[in-house]
Design goal:
Elements: H1 5-8, H2 13-22, H3 36-65, H4 67-76, H5 85-102, H6 108-111, H7 114-130, H8 134-137, H9 139-152, E1 158-160, E2 163-165, H10 167-184, H11 197-201, H12 210-236
Helix pairs in contact: 3-4, 3-5, 3-12, 5-12, 7-9, 7-12
């Protein structure tokens, strides 16, 4: 019945944890810096692909238990690759609606411990970036980001009743999506890998980096896992 459960319940953070362990033998000297973008791009694409497949698996699990939903999602309003924000939002709202079939009083912002989700996400990223050579490649950025993370990402910025991410994080996800496309289609190979002055002056530029990208992916992943756990528990008890 739950063919994809193990995969759905596997945290996306495991990918970062694995690369942190794998990089231990590389060292953290200046001579390793040229490797940084290759490694970050590889991990980033692996994480985005992981999440896209997880979203599809969640939809398949919902469709297995609800034939009306199956017809709607696979015939009338089909999803794409689940890489765009709007597609992930659809899966998020689908999960909430599936839960409400069993529990009409369900309110996601009340049922999910968003403070704990945010704290765990930040703690995981701190551990990866401040205890491995990943920090050496982003030392000043990591230090500044984690010193201000409380203002950058708030508990109320995600897992809303009618939206996966609040507008501020949606804008940052759009930056993530653009970078995903640049990496996936290798457009960086013929573009200068140096930001223009206009890009640097743009307020959003300060949030266009791998730490923010990894945190956004992890937040979405944790919310999806928690909602899926609730859904599965309700299906099994009814």
């Amino acid at each position: 019945m739950y063919k994809h459960s193990d995969f759905i319940l596997t945290p996306i953070y495991t990918i970062l944890s694995e690369v942190s362990a794998a990089n231990a033998a590389v060292g953290d000297g200046i001579e390793t810096y040229p490797l940084s973008e290759y490694i970050f791009q590889s991990v980033f694409l692996k994480m985005t692909g992981f999440q896209e497949q997880k979203m599809k698996c969640i939809v398949w699990e919902l469709a297995t238990n609800d034939y009306v939903y199956r017809y709607k999602r696979f015939s009338q309003d089909q999803l794409g690759e689940c890489s765009k924000y709007d597609e992930k939002k659809k899966v998020y709202l689908d999960l909430i609606q599936a839960i409400k079939v069993f529990d009409r009083t369900f309110v996601v912002s009340n049922q999910l411990d968003r403070r704990a989700i945010r704290r765990e996400t930040i703690d995981e990223m701190k551990y990866v970036f401040l205890t491995s050579n990943l920090s050496g490649w982003n030392e000043s950025l990591a230090g500044e980001f984690f010193a201000k993370h409380g203002d950058i990402i708030k508990d109320t910025y995600f897992a809303l009743p009618d939206n996966l991410l609040e507008n501020v994080l949606q804008e940052r996800y759009e930056l993530l999506y653009r970078h995903r496309n640049r990496c996936a289609h290798n457009t960086l190979s013929y573009q200068e890998n140096v930001p223009t002055l206009l890009e640097i002056l743009d307020k959003s530029y300060q949030h266009d980096h791998y730490i923010m990208r990894f945190i956004l992916l992890s937040l979405i992943d944790k919310v999806s896992i928690e909602l899926y756990k609730i859904y599965r528990r309700l299906v099994e008890s009814n």
